[in-house]
Amino acid sequence: MRALLLLALLLAAPRAMADSADITKILRGRYLATVGDCIACHTGPNGQYAGGRGIETPFGLINAPNLTPDSDTGIGQWSEADFARAMHEGVRPNGDRLYPAFPYPWYTKVTREDTDAIFAFLRTLPAVRNTVDRDTLPFPFSVRTVMRGWNLLFFSPGYYEPRADRSAEWNRGAYLVEGLGHCSACHTARNALGGDSSAAWQGGPLQGWFAPNLTNDARQGVGNWSVEDIVAYLRTGANARSRASGPMAEVVGYSTSLMNEADLRAIAVYLKDLPAAAPTPPAALATSDPAMRTGEALYVDNCMACHRRDGQGVEGIFPILAGSQVVQQPGTDTLMRIIISGVRSVATDGAPTSPGMPAFGWRLNDQQVADVVTYIRNSWGNQAPAASAADATRLRGLVAAAPH
Predict the structure, then answer these.
(1) Does 84 lie in the same domain as 173?
(2) Count of other CB atoms within 10 angstroms of residue 234
(3) Is there a domain that residue 258 lies in?
(4) How far apart are CA 184 and CA 274, in angstroms?
(5) Domain check: are 144 and 43 in the same one?
(6) For the chain, first and last CA: distance in Å?
(7) Integer Cα distance of 63 and 42 in angstroms
(8) Which residues of 40-59 are buried (b: 16+ CB within 10 A; e: fewer)?
């Protein structure tokens, strides 16, 4: 009897070990999908990972595909190799070229082991039948073969290569930031063809916002942020200097707030090593400038109660405006959008209160919005280009047209 029991245990052991290995791979894949913020784009009206969300691009709206294992409308018939090719080369199993709204120019750096783990996780999701219209761009962008030319110009496939002259922590941060995190997809401006501009990591326009500079420039970047400041911001969506809102609120809510502390610190260490780079700001406008005088009066009437007369805000609740990197970016989109349409910061386990700012677009006309933005961007030591009423008019149009 003992011998039979031992034999049964020996026969079951390899299967138990295999199950354990599969579970470990799936759990790792779930974490990596979280790092890549996959759920943010691929969740629509039909549920998580079922696709259908419209992604705004300068060339039109692109609907994110279904990533559930449905055989007809999802990736149920894909293999590990198919998924890896999509991640590393931007090519679907049928040979169609993907648009870089799916960030394969960054995902190409992810190891095959990690893409296999993500695929294993996706295969465990409930299959959702959801047909997504994948051909929404106008001609000529609707012709996917044009991506061959785009790839020749702007895409360099290849796994991340660790640097021997940097620490393991720095290399982990680089792997996450440049790969699954695809941070420069937003924080580097695009050129007219949608490729990287030469101003790497210096921020740029994004869907009616302005993604801020992530270099170590003291005025426009994170030069005055410590590693701990960056970790706190990514973990909770808030630190003593700023609160995450807009597109970054999704990144924090769906991704960075769920990452482990070691990875968050590695990201911060890597970002703090980016060289400072930013356009030279103009001299601050004189307080006697008509826009500054009008803007000051508007600030006192509408903003001072929360952000204080000296622009210092209330720590942990209302962001500091004095010395703010968001305020001093070259573009005015973020500040104008917040004033026109209001905003709510992200809520996380680490910072469950999500303060909101009400919309003032109903109360202020376009010239008034421009004046108060100009005042904020040139007060308390801030230096940034003045805003215009035309900027405010454009932002109102973008807010009205944005998908809801």
Answers:
(1) no
(2) 25
(3) yes
(4) 12
(5) yes
(6) 67
(7) 9
(8) bbbbbebeebbbbbbbbbee
- In this structure, the answer to whether residues 39 and 94 fall within a common structural domain is yes
Q: Is 307 exposed, middle or buried (0-12, 13-18, 19+ CB in 10 A)?
A: buried
Cα–Cα distances (Å) from 343 to 252, 285, 308, 335, 361, in that order, read 15, 27, 18, 10, 12
Domain boundary pick from 220, 244, 271: 271
pLDDT tens figures, 328-348: 999 999 999 999 999 988 888
> Domain of 306?
290-401
Domain containing residue 181: CATH number: 1.10.760
- The single residue listed with the structure tokens 């970047």 is 221
What is the Cα–Cα distance from 328 to 378, expressed in whole angstroms? 8
Write the DSSP symbol of residue 290: H
How do residues 81-139 score in pLDDT, each as one tens digit? 999 999 999 999 998 899 899 999 999 999 999 999 999 999 999 999 999 888 887 77
CB atoms within 10 A of CB 334: 25
Whether residue 198 is found in the same domain as residue 250? yes
Residue 85 lies in a domain: yes
Are the C-beta atoms of 174 and 161 separated by less than 8 Å?
Answer: no
Q: Are residues 318 and 361 in the same domain?
A: yes
By the 8 A CB rule, do 345 and 244 touch? yes
Cis peptide leading into residue 45 (ω within 30°): no
**Residue in 121, 45, 115, 62 with CA at minimum distance from that of residue 84:** 115
* Interior angle at CA 62, CA 393 and CA 153, nearest 5: 95
pTM to 2 decimals?
Answer: 0.91
Number of domains in the chain: 3
- Which residue is it, tokens 């801030």? 382
